[in-house]
From TrEMBL:
The protein, known as: Nuclear pore protein
Localization: Nucleus envelope; Nucleus, Nuclear pore complex
Keyword annotations of the record: Membrane, mRNA transport, Nuclear pore complex, Nucleus, Protein transport, Translocation, Transport
Species name: Komagataella pastoris (Yeast)
Cellular component GO terms held in the UniProt record: nuclear pore
Gene: NIC96
Entry superkingdom: Eukaryota
Recorded family membership: Belongs to the nucleoporin interacting component (NIC) family.
BP GO annotations: poly(A)+ mRNA export from nucleus; protein import into nucleus
Broad class of the protein's primary localization: nucleus
An example Gene Ontology molecular-function term: structural constituent of nuclear pore
Amino acid sequence: MPSVEDKALVGGTKSQLKELLVSSRNLPKTLTDIGPIHLGLSAIQRKAHNLRKYKDDNQRYTRAHYLLAGSGISAEEIETDLLEISVPQTLDVAMGQKNYAELNNGIDTYIESKKEENILAAIEQSLTMAAKDFDAYVAQNISMDWNQRKKELRESFDIILNGTSQEPSNELVEYTQFGNASKKFKSDPNLTWSVNKPILANRVEFNDVEVSSTPTNVLNPSVSYAMRQKFEEYAQAIYELNAARQNNKPYELTNVFAQITKQANDIKSRQLYETWKILYHLVDFNEPAAFQERKFVKGHDSEVLDSFEAIALRKRIIERSRSYLEQQFMDYIDSIYIRLSNKEESKPNAPETPIVDNITKVKLFVEHRYKKEDTWKIQNLLFINGLPIWAIIFYLLRAGCLDDALNLTLKNSDSFTKVERSFPTFLKAYVNSSDRGFNQELHGRLINEFNQFFKHMNKDADPFRYAVYKLISRCELSRKNLPFITLSVEDWLWVHFTLCREGTNDDDPIYERYSLLDLQKTVLKLGPDNFNGSFNNPLYLQTLIFTGLYEHAVQYFYSISEIDSVHLAIALYYCGILRSTSDKNNTTQLLTYRGERNIPEINFARLIGTYTRTFKISDPRVAVEYLILICLGGDLPGDRGKEQIDLGLSSIRELVLETREFSLLLGKIDREGFRVPGIIEERKNLLHLPDKESFLRKITEQAAIKADDEGRVFDSLLLYQLSENYDTVISLINKLLGDLLASTDLETAIDTPAERAAEGSIIALAERLMKQYNSSTEISGKVLLKHRETCSLLLKMVECRDLFVKQEWEKALKQIGQLDMLPIVAGVNVAAARSKVEVFNSYDESVAKNVPDLLVMTLTCIAQLTYQLTSSEFNGLVKSDKIKYLKEVSRNCMLYAGILQYKMPRETYSMLVSLESML
């Protein structure tokens, strides 16, 4: 039995061990100054070398040297003699040393291990570089927004469910014959690419626009036949517009768009049709200066509010909007008069309706609106000679019948009360004035009379008398409403346009100032709800157009109808009354603001690019016609105009690379190697490209550079060919041929006959291009002689490789000799080897990197031919001379390789040594 002391000792030991275990677990897992336990072969070799290096060599002598000294042998002298022995570092086979065969196995093993080591190092380096390049490419070009991708997928599925085809029909005879026609060099520093944010986005969700959930409001020609027909009609109109612009002819774009919209009868189309009519009235294509392109850009895009052009445009907007509303109201009165007259004519024995004047029509309208069963709805109307004179004058002014209002006033002037005696004078001056104004004296009298008799409006007074005085006098502008008169939205707008004045002097009192800019602020403050009170007749879009808020109109209507909003923006941009943003990286806002005054702008380039997303692949020609319109903004002053041109050209290049419709868009190459222009070049003047050279440099060549950067080799070749940059074409061909030769194993064919006959064969393409270029003096003059010689040399190397793979050793060696790249001469000739080395330094990289393989092919051919000769039963002088010649050629090649030893892979030189040893 253990004692109590023993138990205590055991318990204490256990507790100590437990504490030690816990402490050990708290020790650090890794230490930076302690190396790993598991070592690789290279690490073990390095450590062994270090151990040998630090070994104490002072005690290298043992007791054996005493025994040797006793026999008369001095260990120190022997060591000295051994150190004086010079051991040769190379083995010369030509000297016939017999011990090379004994060492051959060791050398072969060493060479094999070094070869494997170099291969593994090269593979590891290639993988590392590829991973770095891929990471850099991803970081530079891809910004992954998964929510955006999810929306795009949903929209794609929605398109598939609503219709599988997105291609418009082939019904447009003159233009839209839809369908496909065909399936690192320094770039221009003045040209920019939208790398991270391309213009031709598949789908852009503008954050400031509410996305419509109605399929017909989002562009998709496959949704319905009506949508498809509208798409084609719009496309036809855009084509005709660009054709007219190219020929410097006018084109009534708004009228054409109005006719397209007129065919539909839905609420959206009706309000858009009215909008087109408003714009047509504003632009007035019937003016003598019929060329309307960018007509108002100086006034609308001016940052100076009081510039002559800006004031003139605002005056025009006020006058044209007011006159349109007046004519619209007169048409409404005519329709009521005709309707009421038809009722009277339908009665039996009714007299024939005579032609009546505007006063009679307005009188009938007033009675129809305010009189019911011989009772007037407004009890305090003032009557003169049985007429509600002030109501009729008000509505004559509302209908734009100023002369009729004056005639009615003068006819009844004697019947006006004492306080109204001056009114005919005021109205006459108002009607005869070009800007509906007064001279200073008359205006002062009018204001005094208004303030004295009419300012304090009450329910017992005639509301129309107050309204007429207020409108012609522009008094009390702080209160712009007309009490006790029910106004429609159109009436409200007309009242405000009547009160607006532009070009007022700074000396004018503040209470007399009310401009179009003030009206615009009021409209934006009220918002769409106050103008869309009637579901059957929403008027907010028209109100925005009336008041010159064109950018806000495009933004507002985009959520209602994308296709119509885009074409509204095009019409406004064409007329010069739409500002476009120059912010290339803004992809989230349709409406942006510029400068301290927050000038509104539309992201026009991205709007057009987004619109083309559904048909840019199926109908690239249509997409081109739309993208050309981006360059309309090239007339803007300073850098802003250049930025718009760059955006347009960038979008064209994106379309070219994305659709790959090179023949259709850029042209094609005929059998002689010359370029046939494509549809983009036909419109080059609309892209602000004055000549063919600028088109080739800014469109085709830049697209080629982009394709080359993206690794699209054949696309870049074709694009460089189309840009007539023939020297670059040959340079690329040389690079491709050099890479092809260097990357193909010597024992396998470069390609099969079927592959070489195919369209994608680099070798066949190089042969065809060299034949075309050499046959044309014009083209060959544009290609550097060195590049042509390099291409010819590479094609001959391809022939050598073909013979080598077929094991036709003698023909292959002869073909290699004809290249005149290696010292294939009789007799050991060091001078010949050195001269070829000097030529090597002038080779293009595509040729130089294939010289090592050419040496291997040469020595392999020599080794095979030597083996055949030595194995043959034939003996004679010719045989010995042939073998001697082959060995001399081999020796010259090895001299050449020895000089270039450090310019070729180590394993290649080792292979050459091994091949020579076989001779």
